[in-house]
Amino acid sequence: IEEVEEKPEEVEEEEIGPVTIEGEEVENAWTRFIYSKDLLEDKEYRTKEEREEDERNLYKKIQKMKVSEKIKLALVGNMQARNILVRDSNKLVATAVLKSPRITESEIEAISRSRSVSEEVIRMIAHNKEWTKNYQIKVNLVNNAKTPISESLKFLNHLRDKDLQQVARSRNIPQPVVVAARKLLQARQEKFKPKKPMKH
Q1: CA-to-CA distance for 200 and 89, rounded, in angstroms?
Q2: What predicted TM-score, i.e. pTM, was given to this entire model?
Q3: Half-sphere exposure of 135 (CA within 13 A, CB side)
Q4: What is the DSSP letter of 80?
Q5: How far is Cα 95 from Cα 90, in angstroms, rounded to an integer?
Q6: Residue 132 in 3-state DSSP?
Q7: Cα(200)–Cα(185) distance, rounded to whole angstroms?
Q8: pLDDT tens digit string along 28-53?
Q9: Where are the alpha helices (DSSP H) in the chain?
Q10: Could you read off the pLDDT of 151-177 as tens digits, one per residue?
């Protein structure tokens, strides 16, 4: 018979190891994470140099954090922190940015255009019905090579002719999307061509 080791009734929170269930580890750690103002408050910059310098400093600070700290920061941090975290190599961190209650539609617009975020981030944006009501986000997703082809094809029908022509000429997006854009343009042109009068 195996001996069962009795556990003390009260366990200090600090003694509990990371829980493996996704999200649980973050919950346990949440109360212990306190961030400095430069990670929480949105800032206005006077110059481009000032912004870049600040981003470099924030980047160094964020790189030293544990995954669970980064995930919480993705949800509560400022725009500058989100901008760095959405490009994190860890998918849990990057996608947590999209769940932030502070994220704005203009940020989503910029992310949907970005080639330096993961496919998972782009897929999440493409699947969000609220965000894809924004016409520019649809255009950005179709023109982003990281958008799954099935999603890009779904948005093609919503594009205006001018944007569709750009897609049809693009060399940076998957060929099936380019071909579909050309066919759609052709179909639209055929539809609006004046019909020739029939000869009697």
Answers
A1: 70
A2: 0.77
A3: 6
A4: H
A5: 9
A6: helix
A7: 32
A8: 555 566 778 888 888 888 899 998 99
A9: 24-30, 37-40, 48-63, 67-76, 79-85, 91-98, 105-113, 119-126, 135-142, 149-156, 161-169, 175-192
A10: 999 999 999 999 999 999 999 999 999
